[in-house]
Recover the amino acids of this structure.
DNA sequence: CGCAATTCCGTAAACGTTTACGAGACTAGG
DNA sequence: CCTAGTCTCGTAAACGTTTACGGAATTGCG
């Protein structure tokens, strides 16, 4: 353990020894310096009412002077709560590169909320070696965090069952099939799918392909449902051959384009669920001499640094990652008893809207 | 504090009550279940030698059965060390968007190392509101972490002085002017600047501009020094007017291009220190009807998802973010006494090499 | 002045671990 | 049989906080 006081160059006065030579650290040292009891010091620092305002000032000044901050371990042990929130993020190779800016953007917002309440953020990496649920179980049992943010929810997500039965406050970024009474925020996949299909149908398209993730992450199902519903609304029969499953990377997009080109009756439009797919898709189409917006219509999902500089520009949907992070943080706190009065929003379940950004990639019109 | 045992649905047997009805948690509960003392349980779990192998097995099985994991706060308090490493990352608006994939990539490698040693990762956000050094001081005083990774080192970096005097193991991603005897790893900015200039000079360029960050982050100075040295090596006089300072974003790149276009004697080549600058630079040049590689030579810095899909393709330098993260993690551990024998590398100070990726953006040749 | 109410502060017990110490039960060697 | 040594394990003291409790000092009121 590092020495509590870093600036210990002031000599004998602040050395903090008892008359018998014993070296004292932490709050005991501070109390000794001030010649009051540690109980009073603690109460003074924690803003408890039963302490004289004058002594409180003395304590605060002394604490500031010697850079005293309460040791977190002692604090956590006594109060039974760490001042930390866990953020579980997957870093699998499936989504690597794609999730990059997404997570860091959300992170930023989450941090903004937490730092306001002096909460620390612990990153829980979802390594590929261990089962995520077991890892989570360990963290919960260790008492590492007071709350959790999980993301990339799956259709049936054991993590949700675990956390629910452990009664640990948490919020999920993404809906799940096993949706109990827990807060979540999810992107408006149905809305995006619907608007994308609407837009394409309005341009005369009838054969609209869709690129979805190949794993069982829940957003794929939701997106696909929205896609099907939109088709049905327009009286277009659903063709399973037009659903292409691939990794959510640019390679995945490349593969999607590849499979689309191989179809006997090639679709005239394609909707992607990951913007990164668009990059690889463009590349493959380019190799085939096809240009998005001229020979085929393409609509991506989220606007991102990668997608923003594609040529021709990609029609996609925009959102503020930071705002999403802020909402996540605040909604989690709202579900924690200790912050219930600061964020009296109750149980938050929110669909996060996205705004259409029209690009050139879906300019392609089909004669009806 | 969440209940230690999550699966408490097995009824009376595992309820963990003392004869007088008191509810027991943690290691005490486990000891009670096994009818041995908590000291033995602790020793068994921690692999201490003086425990019978048979009882150790019993303990391990029981612990696994009831999902017991030692509470971290109690553990930290007793041993004086948390099992956590802090990663300080800046999230200022200056570098937002740019640092995104960089940090997450490095993160990935760091995590890979830490998870191997069951170390947790705490993210220390460098918010714009508080002084980073003070924030760090608080974290150190709280005893939050056993070690630290700091990044984006400045020319004179108070954080380094603080951590050195606090004797907390740390590693810096980036050199600093105030380089004490601490480990660091930094990218090979001199090498990149030299190779970039060499390459351009070989194509006949004599007026080579350079885009550097406008803040006092140290890498800007190092890069510039390399640039100057390379010029001198080729007998080209240094022209301060060709040094353009801007934000390390695409807007910054846009501004750089703008300023270059306004110069009376326009340079024929430009070297950038942030790949994201290239994006904005391309845009401004495009507006002016200039095409990189045809009308002006451009060399970016790091290959990134954004830069990879620029057209014409950007000549830049490639590196593995994950490997850098791994090196950072291992080198930090090497500087911690507890891991000295696992990573016997001593004090690491490493220049991280980058590999040239030739693109089209510097195809432009000047007649000599 | 007497008594109750209030204000302030010290005492000590937790919180869940790890670990130094010592004690008991063996074994071995004489 | 005695003693020294070796295995085990239990006991209890830390680690640095917070907080319930009670006591002393002060104030307010009749």
């Amino acid at each position: 353990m590092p020495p509590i006081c870093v600036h210990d160059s002031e000599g004998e006065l602040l050395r903090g020894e008892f008359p018998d030579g014993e070296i004292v650290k932490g709050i005991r040292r501070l109390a000794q310096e001030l010649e009051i009891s540690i109980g009073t010091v603690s109460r003074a620092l924690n803003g408890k009412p039963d302490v004289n305002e004058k002594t409180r000032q003395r304590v605060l000044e002394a604490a500031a002077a010697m850079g005293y901050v309460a040791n977190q371990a002692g604090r956590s042990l006594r109060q039974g709560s760490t001042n930390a929130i866990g953020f579980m993020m997957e870093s699998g190779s499936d989504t690597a590169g794609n999730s990059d800016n997404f997570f860091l953007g959300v992170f930023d917002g989450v941090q903004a909320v937490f730092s306001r309440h002096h909460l620390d953020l612990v990153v829980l990496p979802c390594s590929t070696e261990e089962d995520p649920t077991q890892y989570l179980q360990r963290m919960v049992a260790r008492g590492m965090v007071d709350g959790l943010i999980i993301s990339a929810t799956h259709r049936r997500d054991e993590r949700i069952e675990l956390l629910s039965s452990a009664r640990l406050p948490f919020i999920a970024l993404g809906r799940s099939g096993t949706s109990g009474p827990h807060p979540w925020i999810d992107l408006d996949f149905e809305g995006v799918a619907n608007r994308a299909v609407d837009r394409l149908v309005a341009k005369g398209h009838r054969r609209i392909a869709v690129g979805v993730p190949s794993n069982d992450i829940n957003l794929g199902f939701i997106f696909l449902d929205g896609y099907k519903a939109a088709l049905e609304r327009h009286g277009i029969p659903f063709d399973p051959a037009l659903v292409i499953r691939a990794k959510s990377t640019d390679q995945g997009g490349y593969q999607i384009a590849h499979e689309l080109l191989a179809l006997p009756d090639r679709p005239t439009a394609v909707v992607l669920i990951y913007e990164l797919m668009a990059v690889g898709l463009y590349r493959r189409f380019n190799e085939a001499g096809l240009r998005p917006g001229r020979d085929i219509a393409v609509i991506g999902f989220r606007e991102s640094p990668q997608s923003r500089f594609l040529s021709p520009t990609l029609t996609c949907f925009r959102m503020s990652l930071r705002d999403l992070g802020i909402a996540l943080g605040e909604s989690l706190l709202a579900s924690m008893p200790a912050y219930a009065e600061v964020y009296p929003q109750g149980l938050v379940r929110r669909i996060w809207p996205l705004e259409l950004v029209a690009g050139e990639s879906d300019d392609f019109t089909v004669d009806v």
